[in-house]
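[step 3/7] fold_predict: job queued, chain A
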Amino acid sequence: MNESHQPAQPAPVIPQSGPKKRKVPSTNQFFAKNTWNIFVYLLIGEFMALVIDIAFLLVDITAVQIIVTIVNVFAYCAMVSSAAWHYGNKDLNRYQFGHTEKNLKRGFWAGLIVSIYPLFFCVGLILANLGYMPYFDVVYKVGNGIFYHYYNWVAGGLLPSQLSWWQLLIIILPNVITVICTTLGYYFGFKDVDVVSRFVYRRGKQPQQENPEKKDRAGFL
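[step 4/7] structure written:
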């Protein structure tokens, strides 16, 4: 008895899906994410300044107060500009791969947005000067700790309602430092310029060679 042999059926081929491509965030999404990151660093800088102010609150020595103010402002600028530098440097990478357009004003716009925080205290101080919130100077100094002692020097013990227009202007004007830091930070980040390294290794002293893949760049301040 002859048996018929049927050819073996090939096993069905199951298509294997490759690794999913990581979705690249849009320019607006990336802007919002990094603006929030800058804002977080702003709050950290203000909190650190407040802690330092409290630590030296009872030290009534002008030289010490000047040093504290300089340290607070420098630390604040370093944190805000560093966050903006990393944003600009990441945008440079996105630009090189065609994921975004070149726009060096993004640091400026991010700075304007995060400046809503100091703007709140400035508007409150103006209203206090008009007589609506006579003791808002306490809120201003606590919320805007980097200029705590600076405010005391300019105000000279006067209530907000007793400040002249020029005193009010001198108190408020330094708050533009946030926009300046974000604008310069983003610009140097997009240009891939690390100002600290150039300052430290100037006059022919070259830094040690690093693996580009492991290089961890810092902010420009």
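[step 5/7] annotate
The CA atoms of residues 104 and 187 lie 6 Å apart.
Residues 212-221 have pLDDT under 50 and may be disordered.
exit 0
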